[in-house]
Amino acid sequence: MGNQYIVKWGNILQDNYNYGATISFDEKGSVSYSAPLMSPSLCIKNWYSQKGFHISRNTPYLPLLQPGKRYHLKANLELEETSSIQLKLIFFDRYNEMLDEYYFSTLEDDFVFLEDAVHYEIQLINKHHQWLVFHELVITENTIQEGYQQQSLAPDMYYYTYKKEVNKKVRLIFLMKKNQVQQLRFHEETDYLFCVLDPKKNIDIVAITMLIFNVLLQKNLREVHVEFIKEINYYRLPQAIYQVPIILDQLMGESTNIEATHTQWLAQAQQQVDTMQLAVQVLQQILLRHSK
Q: Is the Cβ–Cβ distance between 222 and 252 less than 8 Å?
């Protein structure tokens, strides 16, 4: 069906306007920026879809887009006035000659990737800003922008409701957190729940499962298709994350009357845990005897 791309600020200093600027990063990847003495029309931040790695030693921060296709660009940020900055989109041909440039009148709008364009840049232009807090750029294919309604449930957890029909099922996608561009893929016309996991941080399996389960209950979903996107470093995820589908399956089986049956269900679950612990102890004793 289509894709959505979430682009972060990045850590390449030469892509920022740094003179007299105060820049700080938080643990969620958002950036606080302030350069109140900066002249209007100068570029605060530049993102590229193509860079000469042999020259800059840096990889590009923008995804490759398809010529002739319509996209939606949105800047998620906080600032004192929405008119204090402006988005600028620049297209280049294969000779690195500029084909066209487009100034956005708001912080989000549609655009068509030029047929002859090979790469592009997105710039954050200063008009009269005092400060801003940048969260992300979101580039969405038009089919996804028109077909889905997005809801941010928590940091790195997104729910997409398919607009054309009411679904009783959802595709639950676990994927690894990317430092530069996070790609969300949509394969079929159904609801999606994306859970982005960062192996560098402590992952609270219980909190994640509770949040997912509450969403499923609120939306009255009965069928969950779980998919793990196995990318680089996925093996660093805690093994317990792969038990989430099993836990959800158990919970959804009891969710028709969860308030009335939760005590009974918890007792049964505890009994199953106790049984498994006994089974593990028996296996350990068997292995110990065979090793002698």
A: yes
